[in-house]
Amino acid sequence: MLLSSLRLLLLAPIYAAAVSQHDHEDAFSESLTLHPLPDGRTSVLFQFETTFSSPRLSSSIPQSHHSLTPPSLLLPLETNNVSELTISFTSGWDSTRFSSAGLMNYDSSGGGGEIRGWLRDSHDVQDRWNAVTNALGGLFCAGLGGKDKDQGDVVRDFGGIYPQKRRVENTTHFLLSHPESHLCTENLTPFLSLLPSKGLSGISSLLAQPGIIFSWESQSEGIEILMPSTTHQGRWRGWWEGVLPLVPENNKRGNDKTRNFSIEQILRKKLPKPFPEAQSSVLRLIKDLADDNLRAQPNGEEKKEWIDGKSRTVVEWDLSNAELTGNDIQFWWDGENVYHYPRNIPPPPITISRTVVDKLASDGTFQITISNSDDFERRAIYSEIWPWWVKGWMSEIELLVGDRKRPDLLENLSYNPSTPPRISTTTLHFTLLIPANSKATLKIPFSKLTLKYTEHRPDAERGIELSSGILTLLDTLPETASENENSKDSRNTGRKRIYTNRLLLDIPTPDFSMPYNVIIMSSTVMAVFFGLMQGALTRKWGWVEVSNGKGEIVQEKKDQ
Amino acid sequence: MERNKVWTHLQSYRGIIAVGTALRLALFLGASSLCHALERRPELSTPLTSIRSLKEGVYIHERGTNPYDGGVFYHSPIYLAALTYIISASSHFFTAITWTIADVASSIALINVWRSRSGVSNQKRECLITALYLFNPYTLLSCLARSTTSLDNAILLNAIASAANGQALPATILLSLATHTSLYPLLLLPPLVMLLEQTKKSRQKSSVYSTLITFITCFAALAGLNILMADYSWIGQTWGVIINVTDLTPNVGMWWYFFTEMFDHFRTFFLGVFQLHNLIYVAPICLRLSDDPLLAILVLVGIMGTWKSYPTLGDMALWAGLLGCFPEIVSNLRHPLFTLTVHLYTSILLPLLHSLWLLTGTGNANFFYAATMVYGLNASLAVVDVMGAGLRVKVKRDATEMFLKEDIQNDQTQEATNLEVIDKLWEGKGWSVVQFTGSLF
């Protein structure tokens, strides 16, 4: 008795420590979301989220302890004093066919790769950013670092577009866009290795199938890390999203022309064993109003949720439920024998597209069309990032609604020009109003500067990609049901940013086989000129008398 | 009666200028789409002289930011200020008038150069000089493209005309202005000083120094004004670009493709070679043509127009205009027809091959490079030809003078300068000028 109470007394601090640590224990949750799209396809979104705290912050002894978090990801961020970081790779999204302005995950960037984040200020903040991009570039098997050692391609004025998720004072925003990067199988393995379940159990085992995942049409992968502070826990989130067709093109199932599908059918696996450390493991199905007749077997728990400006029905299955393990879930549309591709797909309330018109090899005009199908005016910022060799003509920018010029709609233009010939970026932010039920067209004429022979990338004839333009909506409201009884209000959405497509610009190339020829030929012309001038200037000039045209020199005299 | 009056007016240079002005204004106001298309031609304006860049710079300046801090603005702050505060860059009408006035001022300067050079007022020759300048397609198109080359030319020609008339102050002020706007006119300072010395007829002994001091003062004053307006950033973005050739936009010169294709580690060396190549001719030409500084200016203007880092056809127009003041040289050219036809040929070749490469995107850079090579070689040979013709005329004059001195009974001494007389005499004697293989020294 005495002994046990003594033991209790002795061990009390340890227990207490264990209990207090339990408050901040790392937690992991995962989800798989299916969202059938209006054109016979479905979106699939894998999400993995870990909340964690740093032992460094709570104890005086320097220590690094990881249970669910990947040290290879967090250590570089901790060392370099990163506050927030997002890496995203995206390829392809067709907002006109999918009736949604972008991917289900709002933090996915536009086309290509992108790394952005907030770093705590200090004199070497630029070097630390460089270190982070290089460290994580290795992790994702993709060059995420700048193309230039002077960091000329890093953009620093996008902090307003990508605000901090968690307020931290004295931080700087960095953005490095890699529009040429794309997703490949090399990106999947490192992504899975960052997860605590490593693609072996739980939802991640459904993702660990490159043969299936990479046959999907549109893909987006990314991670987002909020580093822990003394007051807040850290959070890191990874996502993988894709779009796949439900109506098989090469129909091996006989005459099945319906959209009916099951988990096994699309992911080639039955529902997996839950990952034991996962706090929650959920399968979600988002049903649009149009998909009222979408049924599932076994039934899940239904509830209403406000997602991306619309009230939608969400069906949830708890995958930690042992009954579901090893089974399948079937989905079908009641009364659908043959799927008919819809003639009209309602566009999302705001669509944006960017093309190049007046196309010449050396010049062009960006034409950005923003259409607003809502009955109210929207206020937004349209941002562009251009490489240094794209020179825009600011004095010739036009904003049109229909055929009429409307300079009054352009509230502000922030223009940060590049500094050629150094590698640098031009950034543009147009604060503009998009009138109700109309199509605004922004025209930006530009010229392509001539690049040096060494500045062209390998395979220069292919052209160079330009980052997606970003339309940031300034008047969005939180994602809750609006007061009016409508099931639709496009302002109530978490999607603040809508991206345009990437743009492939071909640039006039020199002849790469010519350097020696050009040097030799130009130098020859110069030498000919110099020689003739030198001759004329230094030779003696005089006159001769040629009598009766026989060429006989009668007399020779010299001048000077 | 009326018709006769018009005809006599037309025969005076004023009539030609009136026609030239009317033609320009008519084209500016009547065919503004043509002018708009010409503005974009790389043959007529480089990024350093194009009105489009200038408008862009003025726009950025008016928004309260410094256009030299970034982006592509290479114009002198003088032009920036002039087109911001004096005339609006976006006003088609006022800029049209400015550029027309510039061309008219250039042609009047040419007449002044001719008058001071020949000492006579020959109505027919003046008409010819004016017409050759104002109706030269290179001049006309540069003016319609509103390339600042036209303004540079007007400033430089007036500087030369003032010097030829012995007006030291305006000459130095205008030359420092021209140096500010396009830098290369600095090379004309030595022959200009020599010309001033020759025309002043030793009024003051220390005039070389006073001219130089005036030039430096004006130059520094302008630089000071520019610094007040645009900090120090303009130096690197105007003269820096002219010297370092960082913008490689195609033009008619020999530089852009050379430095596009140049390996980075040789770049500095070849920049030095190309820039020194311009500089190297100044001293020898001034020494060799010391008795005729105006001829030295002519040859140097030709060299600059061909070998400067961002030449345009407007530079060639300046040279051609100046050549009109030297009829004795034109008549002694060895291959004027060749030069002229190759100019015609390149004026077809340049736009054609440019559009193949940069508009339709079907050709590659070699196409346009080939055209600029032809143009550059032709211009180079023409300069050498003019230089040779200048020396031939000199030999002819000297020899005729010698001959006439020996032959004292002959009363033609006063007419020794008359070219027709010289030519007649030489033909009669069967004399011709030759360049010997032996060196002068």
Rg of chain A (C-alpha, Å): 32 Å
- Greatest contact pair? A-B, 62 and 76 residues
Helix tally of chain A equals 10
Number of H- or I-type helical stretches of chain B: 22
If you average the pLDDT of chain B, what whole number results?
89
Work out the strand percent of chain A: 35-45%
Q: Helix- and strand-based class of chain B? A: mainly alpha
Shape of chain A: globular
Quaternary structure of the protein: heterodimer
Helix and strand pattern of chain B: HHHHHHHHHHHHHHHHHHHHHHE
Helicity range of chain A: 10-25%
| pLDDT < 50 runs, ≥5 residues of chain A | 12-22
Cα gyration radius of chain B (Å): 23 Å
Number of strands of chain B: 1
Largest sheet of chain A: 10 strands, mixed
Major β-sheet of chain B, in short?
none
What does the model show?
The complex is a heterodimer of chains A (560) and B (441). Chain A is of the alpha+beta class. Chain A folds into three domains: 25-333, no CATH class; 350-480 and 488-505, Sandwich (Immunoglobulin-like); 521-558, no CATH class. Chain A has helices at residues 2-23, 55-58, 71-79, 95-98, 125-139, 185-194, 204-207, 210-213, 263-267, 515-538; strands at residues 27-36, 41-52, 82-91, 112-120, 171-178, 218-226, 234-245, 261-262, 278-287, 294-297, 301-307, 310-318, 330-333, 350-357, 363-372, 378-387, 390-392, 398-401, 404-405, 410-416, 425-434, 438-448, 464-466, 470-473, 497-499, 503-505, 539-547, 552-558. Chain A has a ten-stranded mixed β-sheet with strand order 5-4-3-6-7-2-1-9-12-11, covered by helices on one side. In chain A, strands 14, 15, 17, 18, 19 and 22 form a six-stranded antiparallel β-sheet that branches. A five-stranded antiparallel β-sheet of chain A has the order 20-21-16-24-25, with no helix packed on it. In chain A, a hairpin with a 2-residue loop joins strand 18 (398-401) and strand 19. Chain A is globular, with a radius of gyration of 32 Å. In chain A, 38% of the residues are buried. Chain B is an all-alpha fold and 441 residues long. Chain B has one domain. Chain B contains 22 helices and one strand. In chain B, helix 6 (92-118) packs parallel to helix 9 (148-164). Chain B is globular and about 75 Å long. Chains A and B meet through helix 10, strand 27 and strand 28 of A and helix 4, helix 14, helix 15, helix 16 and helix 20 of B.
